Amino acid sequence: MSGGLAVVGASRRVRAAHYATERPRRPVAALLARRGELAQYDGPRFGEAVFVTLQAIDLTCIRGERMIFSGLTFSVAPGRALLVRGPNGVGKTSLLRLLAGLNAPAVGQVRWAGGSLAGRVSYVGHLDAIKAALTLRENLAFWLAYRGHNRSLAAALDALGIAHLIDMPTRYLSAGQRRRAALAKLLLVDAPVWLLDEPVSSLDGRGIEVFMVALRRHLAEGGVAVLSTHQELAIDEAETLTLGRNP
């Protein structure tokens, strides 16, 4: 099937075929010059030692004694993205949580071919994980301290278009502004792997644009991204994995 892999289940099971992202990568400088999104490209942030291929091998997910999917196998190479699609309840969030190590698969393995990624993954779930009583500055300062990085909060917020809100308690932010704040965490750490659950939910058109600029730069620098979405996102470096059920 062209345009991605359809995974269709019977009796609430999902059969999966092998999936690989092995298209030739475009030269980074040419990619960025064509889009005109970044004034300068300084090379990969992560270093060759952490360039990795994400591999999922024969994954089976069971929740509440119900099999969500089984036999799921795919790989995502550096500089590539995987868009996970499908109706509600087919296991998109469950898959991301398995990849993040937040849950263990009933069967199968998740591998980071090329080296250890301990502390090198950024996961943004469908909840924003922002404390309402704290300001944006306080929320993100906690995140920086937790991840052990020293980055400019203002620069990350400016990239997401919310630098002017840095000292505002997040209880006063709109849903879209809170989502931008959650996505700003991605820019504060050098994590080669981004795992994103509905990252553009609540975002307006401009919010989606600024997120896409950040995502494309991440891929151009050799990063990997797996994201669930119901939106049509124009990502040249992406393949599609569709989870689903028979009627």
What does this protein look like?
The chain has helices at 28-35, 92-100, 136-147, 153-159, 175-184, 205-220; strands at 5-10, 13-14, 53-63, 66-76, 81-85, 107-113, 121-124, 193-197, 224-228, 238-245. The protein is α/β, with parallel strands linked by helices and 247 residues long. It has a domain at 1-118 and 236-247: Rossmann fold (3-Layer(aba) Sandwich). A hairpin with a 2-residue loop joins strand 1 (5-10) and strand 2 (13-14). The two termini are 20 Å apart.
Can you give keywords for this protein?
247 residues; alpha/beta; Rossmann fold; three-stranded antiparallel sheet; 6 helices; 25% helix; globular
